[in-house]
């Protein structure tokens, strides 16, 4: 597993920077209803996407949460007073506190089905009844597409994509959530591996 405290300083530049953040924020905002007033960005990382979500909707109060202290510090510099250091499997918020919850590029890193289930459960818990949960899916499956890293991993057995859309939908249904829409956005400048 990547050490995100060590990665924080170069994370944005090595992951597509502002173009990728803009695409992700646009995708998230396209799914968040206009009447939503409070959004939680789970695993906000450096806050590069979160900041664009804030800029995209004047009427939306956004809080970010991340587990890695260095990532949360970078996010807090971009979003003063709006970032909390916490584990996405145990969010420090009340039941039903948010109109919308987003978790972009998190579930494929969760380390297994049990963690993905816990994250989805927590996102559902802090969501108000009728609220919207936006997450990215199938990122784990997208890694086997002929990139340079495939040659390195070829000797290993294929890994299970714990963020597969059908699995995430199943976990969400277990907590009363149902699919309500989709959005697509392209990666930008992420390098080959």
UniProtKB/TrEMBL annotation:
Residues annotated as domain Methyltransferase type: 40-134
Pfam family of the protein (one): Methyltransf_11
Keyword presence, Methyltransferase: yes
GO terms for biological process, alphabetical: methylation
UniProt keyword annotations, A-Z: Methyltransferase, Transferase
Domain of life (superkingdom): Bacteria
GO MF annotation terms: S-adenosylmethionine-dependent methyltransferase activity
Gene3D superfamilies per UniProt: Vaccinia Virus protein VP39
Keyword Transferase included in the entry's annotation: yes
Protein name as it appears in the record: Class I SAM-dependent methyltransferase
Organism: Streptomyces rubrogriseus
């Amino acid at each position: 597993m990547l050490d995100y405290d060590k990665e924080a300083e170069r994370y944005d530049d090595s992951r597509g920077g502002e173009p990728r953040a803009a695409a992700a924020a646009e995708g998230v905002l396209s799914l968040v209803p206009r009447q939503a007033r409070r959004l939680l960005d789970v695993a906000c990382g450096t806050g590069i996407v979160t900041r664009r979500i804030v800029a995209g909707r004047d009427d939306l109060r956004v809080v970010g949460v991340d587990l890695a202290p260095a990532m949360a510090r970078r996010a807090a510099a971009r979003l003063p007073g709006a970032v909390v250091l916490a584990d996405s499997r145990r969010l420090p918020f009340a039941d039903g506190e948010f109109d919308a919850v987003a978790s972009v590029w998190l579930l494929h890193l969760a380390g297994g089905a049990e963690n993905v289930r816990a994250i989805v459960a927590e996102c559902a818990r802090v969501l108000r009844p009728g609220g919207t949960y936006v997450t990215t899916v199938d990122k784990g499956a997208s890694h086997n597409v002929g990139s340079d890293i495939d040659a390195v991993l070829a000797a290993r057995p294929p890994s299970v994509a714990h963020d597969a859309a059908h699995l995430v939908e199943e976990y969400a249904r277990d907590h009363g959530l149902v699919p309500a829409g989709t959005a697509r956005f392209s990666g930008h400048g992420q390098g080959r591996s």
